[in-house]
Design a protein that fits this description.
Structural class: mainly beta
Helix content: under 10%
Shape: globular
Distance between the termini: 37 Å
Largest sheet: 7 strands, mixed
């Protein structure tokens, strides 16, 4: 599995951004996928996950603002970020694992990460 994030960058507070994660291996559709984020000096934190059959879960601080989705035909994972806040500034990572517990805490596979910066 090779994961690659795209779509990050600079966005104004209250704006929107969509992150994409592409996997170039056919195992994508069988894996649980997640987005995690990390700020320098702080621990990595779970943002959102989607199982292979579409079960969703979100961290409380993004509920109602972020939406995770996947397109198994295209091997792409998405994170639609709406109404972003300055505290959403972080390095965002795409992650994959064989189950919902590991994908949020200790994924088997990681992307290199992509920076999202929210300006006030």
């Amino acid at each position: 599995v090779q994961l690659r994030e795209s779509g990050g960058g600079l966005v104004q507070s209250g704006g929107s951004l969509r992150l994409n994660c592409t996997d170039f291996k056919i195992a994508f559709r069988t894996l649980a996928m997640a987005w995690l984020r990390q700020v320098p000096g702080k621990e990595r934190e779970f943002v959102a996950l989607i199982s292979s059959v579409g079960v969703l879960d979100y961290a409380d601080f993004v509920k109602g603002r972020f939406t995770i989705s996947r397109d198994n035909a295209k091997n792409v994972l998405y994170l639609q970020m709406n109404d972003v806040k300055s505290e959403d500034t972080a390095m965002y990572y795409c992650a994959a694992a064989s189950n919902l517990v590991r994908v949020r805490t200790a994924p088997h596979y990681w992307g290199q990460g992509i920076q999202v910066t929210v300006s006030s």
